Amino acid sequence: MQAVVIQEGKLQIVERDAPVPGPDEVVVAVRAAGINAADLLQLQGIYPAPPGWPVDIPGLEMAGIVSAVGRDVHEALLGRRVCAVVGGGAQATHCLVPAEHLTFVPEQVGWSEAGGFAEAFTTAHDGLVTQAGLREGERVLVSGASGGVGTAAVQIANRLGAHITAVTRSDVHHEALRALGADETITLGEVAGIGHVDVVLELVGAAHLALAQKVLAPFARVVIIGVGGGSRMDLDLLNLMATRATLTGSTLRSRSRQEKAEVIARVNEELVPLWASDQLRVPLAQTFELADAAAAYEHFARPGKFGKIVLLVEQ
Amino acid sequence: MQAVVIQEGKLQIVERDAPVPGPDEVVVAVRAAGINAADLLQLQGIYPAPPGWPVDIPGLEMAGIVSAVGRDVHEALLGRRVCAVVGGGAQATHCLVPAEHLTFVPEQVGWSEAGGFAEAFTTAHDGLVTQAGLREGERVLVSGASGGVGTAAVQIANRLGAHITAVTRSDVHHEALRALGADETITLGEVAGIGHVDVVLELVGAAHLALAQKVLAPFARVVIIGVGGGSRMDLDLLNLMATRATLTGSTLRSRSRQEKAEVIARVNEELVPLWASDQLRVPLAQTFELADAAAAYEHFARPGKFGKIVLLVEQ
Q: Which domains are assigned to chain A?
């Protein structure tokens, strides 16, 4: 198979042996694989792959067709269109996935969109619903709303019936965010003026949360998922006591296989029906061929894009 | 009645009309009233009493004898020995308490100890058990362990079967903390070396928590209750994400009457039986007469004491 490989801090396209599925795994012939912030951190050498996953092939999500199944996996999975979050190795022509981590891609959805669904929507759903317990009628603040997780979060929060304030760096994304379901779109400098929020989905980090901590409602829940805008913040402990707010951080990547299976089961149950009926979509900033992965990463690192960057894979 | 009153930033002893109980309230003839950090903040003008409580009479806890009951309160309460957490007004000869906020003081417990029980043990129990969900066999770090809440927390955590690391500023309190149930006693500078903890009960604030954040176990729970050692901290968001730890802050004082009743019901159910069988005690640093409240506050503000400072009230 062909794979994107990190060699001495650079991305190369390399020929590798195709993976062989373990008893409860499948191999997916990849058609599209999204890029995520964790890939850039891995390229920089500061966010290694978790144990048991390819150490030098990046990629946390992909979509494609099941091309081989392990001994204990039902053969009916062969040929099915699937997508999945993985611990690594997605940016290749073939990718190993635990069978219980698969999501079936709805018929009408194209590969590029399918390749950018799993990580963003799983992360956003886990953060908003499972971690923060966002409920109908509550107010939620989503920072970094123009990115992959942000555009997923705006849609999920809207379908839950929450009031959404979306924060974006770019002046040009306000209309697109409102089209996805944001009730209010602001820039970072306007956070202080929005009134209290019940939930903060923090996708930017210190630069945003230092401001957002001042608009927490009583019993607010803050879930920290991204720290591209700084990972050290000046936290006001008295304010945390007065509001009785809760801060927690989370990554999908570090979770056990069983934990991931539970998270994905909720996505399959609660989000895939909405995706299948066109109530969710994956906004695509740009697609690149697998061979152009280096250019795709460079594009990903630049601000100002809206939605996902996805690598397309020829089979 | 006589009351400690805050006048222009100073404590005075003043004659006031005795309170009259509302339909579901009682009046307690106070025999002892503990001093808490919140009293000092109120004296400094930065922590006003919550709505519905005396605005200028400090005191969050007391013990005494029920001397009057409201229309809807059973007369059998008259003459009973009780203690309670209140929103304010405890440092006086008479104090109003919602009837459902009372705790019955065990027969063998003296007034000075009873006057220092309610706030410390209720705060510690709510923080460790209700907020942090501390379980048998877990490791807990208690900062400010020599104070009222700290000495209560060490005892409660020990009775729960947790492993306790107690942090104290003073070199002379280690043995006393171990006698209460601490497995390990350290000073602030030694926090980095203790290994991972599942729960942090933060009674000091930024000065301690900046160090403690580096020893959090996966899924650690941090409950912030005191910030005398600084209320602004440099929080490491990446560490919070990697450990999937949770930070929350809490005060008893700001809670609704119903919320307080629920907290106190748990104390009555889970702690009072231990108190009645001499398995919990209130370490007393020093007692003062009500008339010497100013001197007692000064003593409270100084470091190095062990346990509670309690005002004794003549009737």
A: 2-117+253-312 (3.90.180.10), 120-249 (3.90.180.10)
> Which of A48-57, B58-67, B134-143, B193-202 comes out lowest in average pLDDT?
A48-57
Q: What are phi and psi of B269, to 5 degrees?
A: -80, -45
Cα distance between residue B241 and residue A253, in whole Å: 11
- Residues B118/B109, Cβ–Cβ less than 8 Å: no
Check A245 against B248: CB less than 8 A apart.
Answer: yes
CA atoms within 13 A on the CB side of A40: 15
Taking the alpha carbons at both ends of chain B, their separation in whole angstroms is 10
In contact, B128 and B136? CB cutoff 8 Å = no
Instruction: DSSP letter for A4, please.
Output: E
B247/A251 CB distance under 8 A: no
A295 φ, ψ (degrees, to nearest 5): -65, -35
Q: Confidence class of residue A59 from pLDDT cuts 50, 70 and 90?
A: very high
Q: B140: which residues sit within 8 A by CB, 6+ positions away?
A: B128, B132, B134, B157, B162, B163, B164, B165, B197, B198, B199, B200, B201
User: How far is residue A162's CA from residue A134's CA, in Å, rounded to a whole number?
Assistant: 8
DSSP B92: B
| Nearest CA-CA partner of B22 in B90, B78, B69, B84 | B69
**What's residue B176's pLDDT?**
96
**Is the whole-model pTM more than 0.90?**
yes
Average pLDDT, chain A: 96
d(CA B132, CA B202): 11
Going by their DSSP bridges, the two strands A25-34 and A94-98 should be labelled as antiparallel
Q: What is the 3-state secondary structure (H, E, C) of B150-214?
A: HHHHHHHHHHHCCEEEEECCCHHHHHHHHHHCCCEEECHHHHHHCCCEEEEEECCCHHHHHHHHH
Query: CA of B30: how far to CAs of A60, B211, B313, in Å?
Result: 64, 41, 6
Is B247 in CB contact (< 8 Å) with chain A? yes
Q: Within 10 A of B284 (CB to CB), how many other CB atoms are there?
A: 21
- CB proximity B183 to A under 8 Å: no
Give B246's strand partners: A248, B221
Provide the residue type at B259 as one letter. E
Q: What is the C-alpha end-to-end distance of chain A, expressed in Å?
A: 10
Phi, psi (degrees; rounded to nearest 5) at B250: -155, 145
Find the DSSP H helices in A137-291. 148-160, 174-180, 206-212, 237-243, 257-270, 272-276
User: Tokens standing for A99?
Assistant: 């069978």
Closest residue on chain A to B241 (Cα): A249
In sign, the C-alpha dihedral spanning A94, A99, A105, A107 is: positive
* Structure tokens given for A276: 């299948």
Which residues in chain A are closer than 8 Å to B240, comparing Cβ atoms? 224, 247-249
Q: Is A206 on the interface with B (CB under 8 A)?
A: yes
Predicted pLDDT at B74: 96
Phi, psi of B151 (to 5 degrees): -65, -30
Amino acid at B60: L
B103 - beta bridge partners? B83
